[in-house]
Amino acid sequence: xxxxYVLACATLIMTACGxxxxxxxxxGTFEATETTVFAEQGGALLTFDVNEGDELAMGREVGLxxxxxxxxxxxxxxxxxxxxxxxxxxxxxxxxxxxxQLTKAQxxxxxxxxxxxxxxxxxxxxxxxxxxxxxxxxxxxxxxSSLSTSTRTLDKQTAAAxxxxxxxxxMLSKCHIITPAKGxxxxxxxxxGEFVTVGKPLFxxxxxEHMYMRAYVTSAQLQHIKLGQKVKVFADYGNNNRKTxxxxxxxxxxxxxxxxxxxxxxxxRADLVYAVKVxxxxxxxxxxxxxxxxxx
Length: 296
Prior knowledge:
Layout: H1 2-20, E1 26-31, E2 34-38, E3 43-48, E4 55-56, E5 61-65, H2 68-87, H3 91-118, H4 123-174, E6 176-178, E7 183-188, E8 195-196, E9 201-206, E10 210-217, H5 219-222, E11 230-236, E12 242-252, E13 257-258, E14 272-281, E15 291-295
Antiparallel strand pairs: 1-10, 1-15, 2-9, 3-5, 3-8, 4-7, 5-6, 7-9, 10-14, 11-12, 11-15, 12-14, 13-14
Helix pairs in contact: 2-4, 3-4
């Protein structure tokens, strides 16, 4: 009987000692970089090929918002630009007549100048010819200025129309729903056929291949941790089922915070802790929100 009692006491002592030995330095939960995709244009959702759990590649088109009105505005602006171009004056043709008159007047002026020099004509005739040249020159300058102003105005109107077309083409491109990053669809907020507005959430994706565990450490532990440090991460599946991953410390908070309720640290009496992120490469088994442990 005494032998049995001694063995029982020894077992309890060994168990107690074993319970005090931790195989980890901190615990936390697994997270992933999540991205919510919003509608950049409003309209009916003509197509939407997204389902929760889908693996989407970056740059993949998964939906289309109605583009009819935007396309019609582009066509309308194209017609407006053609009108502006047709209204541009042909400067050379419109000033050709007055140029011809000016050339004739200049020849007359030169002829009267020679006659006056020879004493064959009164100087008044030269004055009249010179005055006619000046009048025609002013008319030519005024007409060229007016035509140039009209041309510049039409060019500016055409440039403004081009800017509007570029804006509409940008709106047109934003009607195509493109996946901004590679990831797994976590949530889907709309269905095909719905009318969506600008800024409405469409779906949420997360990079579940490259995940990280957010853990909390005390200031005493912090002095032994640095960025880029290689560590061991354990995914906790419950019932003492764990899986080990190679991890890298990718971020260390520069500000302390109060210990979260759900987190255990090596020193549970510590009120202030620091958050750290440990990056891992997921093999498909680690899920967002799963508890884990890290050994520094």
